[in-house]
Write a structure and sequence with these properties.
Number of helices: 10
Low-confidence stretches: 1-5, 9-18
Oligomer: single chain
Strand content: 5-15%
Distance between the termini: 50 Å
Helix content: 55-70%
Strand order of the largest sheet: 2-3-1-4
Mean pLDDT: 79
Structural class: alpha+beta
């Protein structure tokens, strides 16, 4: 006589049915990989925007706090003597902290790229340069410096780097807009990917959805299944994408120290924490997109 198996009343499998979306789906690994790459790119764009903004602000601070004076020789005075007198004159201007005349070698180094590597003739009238350090709180303007030099009878031109400052600020603003546009594009691509995967999941389980409707399941219940699945998947994708972006930033900061790329993208230690919200942002975008897409598709079903 065979015994009939009796299901215990407290069996978990009896009261907790299998999920509508199976956990082992080969296509989810492809989706997970693509989402991870998108999260990596989004995190890198944030780190790059922070570094580019810092570089632009640093260059601006250096240019705003200094000025360069080009001193030319006259018939009555040599270039070296005129530069020394210009430095002495500018040192007494309000808003100037220091003014020093640069050596002839430094002035010649600036014109060598245009005249070639050969030694310059000794009688070539190369202008001298005067480096001026300005007070950061109340810097002297170019007009005040030019007026002081004119009153002292020095033939010179003042460059307060205002043109370079505007260009650097424009470049920094452009880098920020580009990074923001890239981030928005990546977010839109991730949302479109989740929406496509949700519609495909509903299409492949159309019969199951109909059975659930006949059993009394609401559209909200079915939509929650997709919301939970894709939100959880996006969370892990955001975690790994953010971790890879932080590792890439740390590698750039470690191995590019002292090189040109470090000056262009000065990644600080605090920038490596920028990808921390990535898992939560990715999960929120995926969950909301999946929920709205599923509810819209279910309303259109007969």
């Amino acid at each position: 006589m065979s015994e009939t198996a009796v299901t215990p009343p407290m069996d978990v499998k009896r009261w907790w049915p299998a999920p509508m979306l199976p956990e082992t789906d080969g296509r989810q690994f492809t989706l997970l990989f693509v989402l991870t790459v998108l999260c990596l790119l989004a995190s890198l764009s944030v780190i790059g925007a922070l570094a580019a903004g810092r570089a632009a602000n640093g260059w601006q601070a250096q240019l705003v706090g200094s000025a360069t004076v080009v001193v030319r020789a006259t018939d009555k005075e040599s270039a070296d003597a005129a530069a020394a007198r210009a430095a002495e004159t500018l040192a007494g201007v309000k808003g100037v902290t220091e003014a020093r005349a640069l050596e002839r070698d430094k002035a010649e180094a600036l014109v060598k790229p245009f005249l070639g590597p050969d030694p310059l003739p000794a009688d070539l009238p190369v202008p001298r340069l005067v480096a001026v350090e300005l007070d950061k709180k109340t810097p002297a303007g170019a007009a005040a410096l030019q007026a002081a030099l004119k009153s002292a009878g020095v033939d010179a031109t003042v460059d307060d780097h205002s043109l370079w400052t505007r260009q650097i600020m424009n470049a920094g603003a452009l880098a920020g807009w580009v990074a923001g546009g890239l981030f928005a594009t990546i977010v839109a691509a991730a949302a479109a990917l989740i929406a496509f995967a949700t519609r495909q999941g509903l299409a492949t389980r159309n019969e199951l959805v109909m059975v659930l409707h006949l059993a009394g399941a609401t559209d909200a219940f079915i939509a929650r299944q997709f919301q939970a699945r894709f939100g959880r998947m996006a969370f892990f994708a955001g975690f790994w994408g953010g971790a890879l972006a932080a590792a890439a930033g740390a590698a750039l900061r470690l191995y590019a120290h002292g090189q040109t790329v470090a000056a262009l993208l000065p990644v600080e230690r605090t920038d490596l924490f920028a990808p921390l919200p990535c898992p939560f942002v990715a999960a929120l975008i995926a969950a909301v997109t999946a929920r709205l897409t599923a509810e819209g598709a279910l309303r259109r079903m007969p």
